[in-house]
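WARN retry 2 of 3 for item q-0093 after timeout on previous attempt; input resubmitted unchanged.
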Amino acid sequence: MRLATIFHDGREQAALVLEEGLLPIEKINALFEQTWPTELFDIITRQKLDELKHFVQEKGDYMLQEAGADLLAPEVVEYRPLYRHPSKIWGIGLNYVDHASDLNEVAPNTEPASFMKPDTAIIGYGDTIEVPLQSHRTTAEAELGVIIGKECKNVEIEDVPNVIAGFTTIIDMTAEDILEKNPRYLTRSKSFDTFFSFGPQLVTVDEVEDVQKLNVSTVINGSIHRKNVVENMTFKPWELVSFHSKVMTLKPGDIISTGTPGAVPIAEGDSIECHIDGFEGLVNSVKDLKVTSSAEVEKVSK
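OK item q-0093 returned
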């Protein structure tokens, strides 16, 4: 099953993603006299994802027949972030050896190099990434995201699939020039507004045959900058969930961004994308606030 958050009827709401189009959950409720939560975060946190999946599988073609004009064409849908207020966002640094060599650093090989990001950094498909005034070298990184589906603590690797809601595409930003000043500036370099884009779709675990065979690509202005396969990660997705669950309790909706095959510098007017096999691509444009600020100063001076 695939779900998205869209802007429809004046608000952000969850929608089921079908080959024929998108069907808002509120329409499913009306058509079939159901009471599913109409926000994706609530579907996850109220443990309704599996029930909804079974309901959709049961209704099948009948749902499509009944939906009719309520189906929304993908090209007219306005995607939003899957949700805006997870309790935690974990990022994983240098999880591909090749990416570590890009930065002239040694990839961690005993434990993941993880960091946390605030929910104020969240944006979604089509939103604008803002390069901050404080940075002259900001990079963007395509990543596979793992979304936690159940509250869990001390999960063993073999049990991880039982606590996962699914996967998504992510673009993570870093003010690299700030980070290079001092490694202790990592949190600040990762935490500017607009520095975490995710969505547009949540893909449930059963839709992915083998997560380790997925290719992840960072794409800049239509060209692939760097591509790698998940099995080349130092710490695989299930290991990351298990490891961090032994640090702190993971909550439904928590996100683990598993690391990038390669970061690319971004500038005013760029388009940055995350491509993952079988997933809808995530696309964001770039605005440099220094350019905007300079233009405003020049305008005032005239």
